[in-house]
Design goal:
By secondary structure, the chain is of the alpha+beta class. Helix content is 34%, strand content 24%. The chain contains 6 helices and 9 strands. It has helices spanning 3-19, 47-72, 81-96, 99-106, 121-126, 172-190, and strands spanning 110-114, 139-147, 152-159, 164-166, 169-170, 197-205, 213-221, 230-238, 244-253. The strands form 2 sheets. Strands 1-2-3-7-8-9-6 form a 7-stranded antiparallel sheet, with helices on both faces. A hairpin with a 4-residue loop joins β2 and β3. The N and C termini lie far apart (139 Å). The model has no long low-confidence stretch (mean pLDDT 83).
Length: 267
Amino acid sequence: MFGPRRVLQSRLRNLAIQAQPWSRPRFLGPRNSSTVAHNPAPKPSKWPRRLIYTGIFGGLGLAAGKWMDMQVSAPPVPGSFEDIAMLEEIHHAYENCLPLVQDLRKNPNYAEANVYGNYSEEDKIGRLTSGPLSGSRGLALQKVFWNEKEKKAVSVVFLGTGLEGWPTVVHGGALGTVIDESLGRVAIRHLPARTGVTANLEINYRAPVYSGNFYSFHATVDQERSNDRKAYVTGEVRDPVGRLCAQASALFVVPKNYKLQEVGTKY
């Protein structure tokens, strides 16, 4: 009488065991799937990209090294082969690479001239800006564009690495010397005596002036305040893209009790 009941209990236990998660067999997929070979797609080679990166960063490294070598190395001695070669490059850049120069040459109100035209070669050697500061390391090039109608001048000057007070930055005193001469050059053209000395000079430095580049020095006579013995001049210094780097104002006078050499009109 217990036969059918035992059979039923046995089937229920089997169903309960099969319902447990751990008792289920894992599905491994078709047996023949493990025997199918899958070849992965070939990866592109990284060598072309590595060569490109090597060339780019290698070139940047060489350029940076050359620039750093130029900054830390001693400036060339005036008259040396290296100095002459650099002066030729500077003059070539002045003639062909400065939009300001091209614009001034197109303006009929401006007349271009060299500086120190009133001095002999012997006199130039004894002057600070044309003697010790000459050559590519100093004031390698100075040109003046004079506007007689407006009594103003624009001087284009190359400032060499020998004028640095801090690496890559022109010394404030050296810059002040060039500003003084640029303003005084305009003042002397205004004064009938064609000579004069600096009585007062005020400079406000607005931005760093970096060596190894061209800068323009602008100077204008204040005709309302000036007379035959005093010339009030204002000026500014701008970098190659026109950014203001310094502003200046000065008073130049003709001494009453001291005879000065007449400079003339050739700067």
